[in-house]
UniProtKB/TrEMBL annotation, chain A:
It comes from the Archaea. Residues 9-46 form the HVO-B0008-like N-terminal domain. It comes from Haloplanus ruber. InterPro entries: HVO_B0008-like_C (IPR057410), HVO_B0008-like_N (IPR057409). Pfam families: HVO_B0008_C, HVO_B0008_N. Residues 70-112 form the HVO-B0008-like C-terminal domain. This is Uncharacterized protein.
UniProtKB/TrEMBL annotation, chain B:
Its EC number is 1.14.13.-. It comes from Haloplanus ruber. This is Aromatic ring-hydroxylating dioxygenase subunit alpha. It comes from the Archaea. PANTHER family: CHOLINE MONOOXYGENASE, CHLOROPLASTIC. Residues 49-150 form the Rieske domain. Its cofactor is Fe cation. Pfam families: Rieske (PF00355), Ring_hydroxyl_A (PF00848). SUPFAM superfamilies: Bet v1-like, ISP domain. CDD domains: Rieske_RO_Alpha_N. InterPro entries: Rieske_2Fe-2S, Rieske_2Fe-2S_sf, Ring_hydroxy_dOase_asu_C_dom, Rng_hydr_dOase-A. Transmembrane segments: none annotated.
Length: 115, 380
């Protein structure tokens, strides 16, 4: 799969390392590997259209609600949240915070749902 | 005769004789997920593996984490100034303790503390303290506090991983009884590198790339330059490939590249008028440049059988790089990208399953050593 035909493309702005993926959670895995050895964050370059409107103000619960799947893949949440300019790391931090306040739960690995 | 996977050809272990037809590692060792599982123990669990550069953790309590296969260690400088490595695993119930912390963005801690139940360790790994709930039995009706014997700090410390160094380069060995010392594994490379002022150079850049091929595919590509004329045309400008030398030692090999014009001594860390690319089995290189006063290292870190991370670090006297040094790194990255194209294309061919066992040329003796070491490790 090349950058031209991959549905999901993400990049590290610091070292220009780019990844392509057919599953958005592959980008989350890439972020974790890359962050572990560089400390860098990763931004989305391409993702399929969400097909729904997000609120103007960042709200991670609204993203989870807007996406069709339940539970929804973390990578899909992150791809959607990139419309607010969020990086992968910022989205994962926000999801973590919401989980630890009881608003979100993780019925299966790297997939979240509203409580 | 080429050994295709045609049901007829017989595949063999790597012959010690490079003139034999079966002088290369069979293709399955590059593509089979079971081989990667085996390598975690037989390669990365037995040989000395590069951990990182101790200049990045100059003060007591400075640390970074390093992951090798399924294992992760904390590499930390203790209160005596010694660099030690411990499994990032609490002695209580096995929790991972500190977050992933890259060498290039190290952390600092007075003590190592597990966030789960707050067991706390000194920087030498000894158990320093546990919460009161481990010292008394107030919640257990079957025990009195006097039944609690307490935890001996020495007997309940962290599991230390052996470390050794070549100058400021720190290595790990996960084996209880390693088959070799680092001196034996590195051989002349250790002597050579320790004659150079490596510790006077500071980390300047790290670039990490994920590449879709087996780690040995890239290691093999690094180890020969038969492909350079056709594929690295910018880089070979000014290099006399026909006068270059490929030196093979037990567990390390060196590619000496002679420059056509003499370069000022100030533009090299070493004395010889050449670039020297050192490969240390299994997955570490030290790149001594011929035209830049600095050096680099590569860690060729497997993710699985079909992917690896190339962790490329660059060291210069001043981490604030000059324009020439920035341009040097740009050229180095161009060389990497050219190599990534080559090795990914090779791996795509290997994963088709057509080729059973390749053949090495007479000038691929460095690569032959690499394949023999892999075979030796698998057979051990």
């Amino acid at each position: 799969m090349t950058a031209d035909d991959a549905p999901f493309v993400a990049c590290c702005p610091d070292c220009a390392e780019r990844t392509t993926a057919s599953d958005p959670n592959e980008v989350v895995a890439f972020y974790r590997r890359h962050h572990a050895v560089t400390g860098h964050d990763v931004t989305w370059e391409r993702m399929p259209s969400l097909g729904t409107n997000l609120p103007a103000d960042p709200d991670i619960d609204a993203v989870v609600a807007a996406l069709d799947d339940s539970p929804v893949a973390l990578g899909a949440v992150s791809a959607a949240a990139s419309e607010w300019g969020w990086t992968v790391g910022e989205t994962l931090d926000a999801v973590h915070d919401r989980r630890l306040t009881g608003a979100l739960w993780e019925p299966r690995d790297d997939h979240v749902a509203l409580v | 005769m080429t050994r295709w996977n045609d049901g007829v050809a017989e595949l063999n272990a790597v012959s010690p004789d490079i003139t034999d037809e079966t002088n290369a590692l069979p293709a399955k060792y590059f593509t089979d997920p079971d081989v990667w599982e085996m390598e975690k123990e037989k390669v990365f669990g037995r040989y000395w593996i590069y951990a990182g550069h101790e200049n990045c953790i100059p003060d007591a309590g400075d640390y970074f984490t390093r992951t090798v296969g399924d294992k992760q260690v904390i590499v930390a400088r203790d209160d005596d100034g010694t660099v030690r490595a411990f499994y990032n695993v609490c002695a209580h119930r096995g929790s991972k303790m500190v977050e992933d912390t890259p060498m290039t963005d190290p952390g600092n801690m007075d003590r190592i503390q597990c966030p789960y139940h707050l067991w706390t360790y000194d920087l030498d790994g000894d158990l320093r303290s546990t919460p009161r709930s481990f010292e008394e039995a107030s919640l257990n009706p079957d025990l009195d506090d006097s039944d609690v014997s307490g935890l001996d700090p020495d007997e309940n410390g962290l599991l230390e991983v052996q470390t050794d160094s070549i100058g400021p380069l720190v290595f790990l060995n996960f084996a209880d009884d390693p088959p070799h010392t680092l001196d034996e594994q590195a051989g002349r490379m250790k002597t050579r590198l320790e004659s150079l002022p490596l510790e006077e150079y500071q980390h300047a850049r790290r670039y990490v790339s994920e590449v879709e091929c087996n780690w040995k595919t890239f290691g093999g590509n690094y180890s020969e330059c038969d492909h350079c004329q056709a594929n690295h045309q910018d880089w070979i400008t000014g290099i006399q490939l026909d006068e270059s030398e490929l030196e093979v030692n037990d567990y390390h090999w060196v590619l000496h590249y002679t420059h056509e014009e003499d370069i000022e001594d100030e533009l090299r860390i070493h004395d010889e008028h050449e670039a020297q690319f050192h490969y240390l089995w299994p997955n570490f290189t030290v790149n001594m440049y011929g035209t830049a006063d600095g050096y680099g290292t590569y860690i060729i870190d497997p993710i699985d059988e079909g992917r690896f991370q190339l962790i490329a670090d660059y060291y210069f006297a001043d981490p604030d790089l000059s324009a020439d040094e920035e341009e040097f790194i740009r050229t180095s990255r161009q060389l990497q990208e050219e190599d990534f194209e080559l090795v990914e294309r090779q791996y795509e061919g290997l994963t088709s399953g057509a080729l059973g066992q390749g053949q090495l040329g007479p000038n691929e003796h460095t690569l032959h050593r690499f394949h023999r070491l892999a075979q030796e490790a698998y057979n051990a």
